Amino acid sequence: MPGKKVWDLEVKLFFKFGIVLLSMLCILVSEGFAFSIGALDVRSQFGEKFDGTFEIDLDFDGPLELGLGSVDDYSKIGLERQDIIDELILDSVLRDEKLKATFRIRSNKPLFFPSLNLLIRASHNGGTLLENFLVTVDFQQSLALNVRGKKKKSLPKEIPQSKPEPGVSQGAQPAEEQNIAEGEVIVEKKQKPAPVKAQAAEPHDDKASSVESQDLATNPIDPTPIKDGVVHRRRLSGVIWASPRSAPELRLEPKPTKNIELEAKKSVEKNEKTDLAQKKSTPKKVYVLQKGEGLFSFVRKHNLGNYHPAQMAVAIWMRNIDKFIFGNIHGLQAGVKLDLTNLEEYVSEVDLQTARKILRDQEVEWKLTKSVDTVKEEPATAQIPLPSERIEGFDELFKQANGWQTTWKKMEIEKHLSYYKVLEDGNSFMNSKKRLLSRYPKPRVETSSKFVVLKEGVPIVFFDQAFSSETLKSRGLKELKWDHSESGWKIIGEKFHEWSSGSEGQNLESVADVGAKNKQTLPLSFIIHVSSHSQKSAALSLTNRLRENGFDAHWTPVRVSMQTFIYRVYIGRFADWNQAHRMVRLLRKKPYGTHSTAIPYPYTIQVGETNSLPAARTLLESLRKSGFSGLLLVSEDEAKRTNFRVVVGAFKKAENASWMLQQLKLNGFAGVLMSP
Prior knowledge:
The protein is elongated and about 90 Å long. Helix 5 (295-301) crosses helix 6 and helix 6 (309-319) crosses helix 8 (352-371). It is of the alpha+beta class. The relative contact order is 0.09. The protein is 23% helix and 26% strand.
């Protein structure tokens, strides 16, 4: 009698509407990050208790729903569910890695069967996979898993000529020289490309697949043996997406993130190249979301650049936040037109860790919108004043900031350095400023109007700064950190952040025009979304806590339906995503700010504007007594006077402010929609 009887496993694809045969298609897909089900590794023998394992790669560290296929799942791919499937048990084995999980399929008693279709269903991040493994017993040959076997109408009577590759423990011999020993379990493993930066999109037609192959061809990969009729892994294995669609060609090339340095480290050549690149026009790309598509499934289906799907999803969300329900990244509906123009300007600013954090935090709020009830609750405590209301001497602060600028332009070095406070650590930033002054003796420094933001109670004056000399040009956001003592306002910190190509500051004039048109103000389109709550009292309590810790926080209601609300807590107004995210990194280290996210919400409602801080305080107190939460924006106007603007709420698009405008009017406040 020959050796032991073992199983012969083959992985095949079943489509709901028929079997699609592909003649020639070679696709190599990076599996490092995509949501996918790996190969099934069976260790048991025929007539023994079934024992097999497989791995799943996740898009991010989020929830995963997994199970054996139901009767409906089997019918979707044109199969009947066998009774023997009920004998199988699915267990979780390991999830040490955040983006990879291992699962085990077993049985409590020995199984005897000629063949079975083992269907696994997995749902994650809006995508659903149906992975079918055809397990058959070959009573003449040993057990093997032929991952790339072609689908036939009947089972093969012998092992195909294209022999499986050896397991990890076997020697690396040519395929044609390998001998299969009787009773030996051999699993052909999929060749994986070398690690790349991000997961390529997964197309659903031949045209898009060829684009994907061309894109991945630039990355080094392990050699793959030549096989006739090789097909895309997802088509071969039986993966079925909920609503597969044809994928138009949409491609973006990755752009490296710029390093943020001081002016002294910027070269003229680099700035000239940047100016030239900004002048190039980019055609607008628009995609209409199809029925059954979600944000992640859309990203996976389209080749949008060498970035992780999570990064691309966040970039699309930031670019089109007005298209999302409640401005939440999970609130996307069919028929929405997504603007995909210049996505690289957004994605290059968002690293993978930040993107995953945004996805998790947005999921918390999205679940809240689904579970909120209509219970109305009165706040238990009153709102406390904003920390910016309690600061005296804004006029003197702006006067010092203007003096700092004037003495720099006139190269009055001693006077200029007198604006800095002498610190115990020797003022490393002050020493850098001395070197800058000596290196560029004839500077031209122009700025936009100046604004104030509080960071843990410390005022930071920020503005758009254009610097030029005979050998250097730079443009970016300048932040001056101030401290008030008996000698008045002194600088205790200075930072310069060069504008990225997608920043709001790029909407201002050129370096030569910033000073000539000083009335041009810096747009403050970004806010920090700290958290969302189902109860008003919880939002009010957090707002007070943030204010006590020196942040200008405010809360606003968001209508989920006619009778239900959630309550969001926001902080401040910022010039661009990078500036807001620098404060987000600080907030996430605090117990009250772990879910903080920088969001582009360009609209707000201005309730009043004045040059008097006491008048602004009176208006803010009136809002608090009427049940509203206001924010104080402090800036300098064209006439070098301190300007106080009282605003309410933050909105992704103008129509979202209609309900709040009505509520303010009913309470006697004249609100005006504006973009600060």
